[in-house]
Amino acid sequence: MNDVAREAGVSKMTVSLALRRDPQISLETREKVMKTAAKMKYVGNPHVAELMARLRTSRSALFKATIGLINANENPKAFQTHPTIPTYVEGISRSALRLGYALNRFWLHDPKMSPERLYRILRTRNIRGLLLVGLMENNVLPKGYELLWENFACVVTGVRTTDPTFSFSCVDHHAATLLAFEKAIQHGYRRPALVLDDVIDRLVERRFLAGALVSQMTIPKKNRIPAFMRVREADKDLKLFKDWFYRYEPDCLITLYHRIERWVHALPKKIPEEVGLIQLEWRSDHPEWSGVVQHNDRTGEAALNMVIHQIHQSEFGIPQNPTATLIQGSWKEGQTLRSKVSVHLSDGRASLI
């Protein structure tokens, strides 16, 4: 390793980090070290490498820098009380601790904090990267913060912002919806339908509805049902939902809202015998539901990694070509669906499993 360091004109530590593809080392330096090591036919000792890896993971990471964690939600306590946002923060905090980064928290809508004052605080604390968490009603950031967006590395979690548009990480809503419809069919339902508020779907650029429309194309035309997108209106007038339900007669509802269970009982219909329920964002406070686990903590981890990468690459300001990291959801079996349907290939008869 010493020989590689001398040949490349860098320190031994730089060689060690570069060979591990550590983002602290610039891409140009990493490539230079890699080429030098290959030229000199350098091969590291795998036993030593394994030992050092264990030592590194067994002790706390050294402090590297501070990241600004911005609560972009209108609720100042969203990091603690919102049903979804705290999970993003959990992943960000866990990853920051492991990687050696501190987090300073700020509320974007703090009436006592002007953009200019926040800018000065960030500069004084030598904060160069910002993570924005909590946009739930719209994906447009408030005006007046151009000084921040143009001078810091910024990444958003959960949704893609517009005006300005930053790189972001979020669950793959489209894939999650495809998975939900697929599971509904596997459980023997024939007329699954999406029940979602239009505001939420617009917030994620119609990825839920797009997944539903694609899924509907895979089932017979007579069983395709238009989505019910008036959830907020139905909260005030349940007749809207009832009229839609009795008109189209869905047998499985794919949704984000646990209160839909009360709506189904009010019809009245039995769950899961007559109507199945699937949660597009499964939560541990309703473990009985079947649904898609979105892994929002992993989304938070991905966002932190993205902003760290931007800092190391000196990518500050509004990006010319924003990037997106999509996190795959996974299925959670519950009690709100009937047993799966299995087809016996020998005689073509179906049975429940």
Task: Walk me through what this model shows.
The model is unreliable at about 345-350 (pLDDT under 50). The chain is of the alpha/beta class. Helix content is about 40%, strand content about 15%. A hairpin with a 6-residue loop joins strand 12 and strand 13. The chain starts with a helix and ends with a strand. The protein has a six-stranded parallel sheet, covered by helices on one side. It has three domains: about 1-60, 434 Repressor (Amino-terminal Domain), CATH 1.10.260.40; about 65-170 and about 295-330, Response regulator (Rossmann fold, 3-Layer(aba) Sandwich); about 175-295 and about 330-345, Response regulator (Rossmann fold).
Relative strand content: 15-25%
CATH homologous superfamily placement of the largest domain: Response regulator
What is the H/E string? HHHHEHHEHEHEEHEHHHHEHEEHEEEE
Separation of termini? 59 Å
How do the strands line up in the largest sheet?
Answer: 2-1-3-4-5-10
Radius of gyration: 25 Å
Main pleated-sheet profile? 6 strands, parallel
Helix content: 40-55%
Point out poorly predicted stretches. Answer: 343-348
Q: What overall form do the CA principal axes indicate?
A: globular
Q: Structural class from helices and strands? A: alpha/beta
Please report the number of helical segments. 15
Features of the shown structure:
Rossmann fold, 5-stranded mixed β-sheet, 41% helix, 353 residues, 434 Repressor (Amino-terminal Domain), 6-stranded parallel β-sheet, 15 helices, alpha/beta, single chain, 3 domains
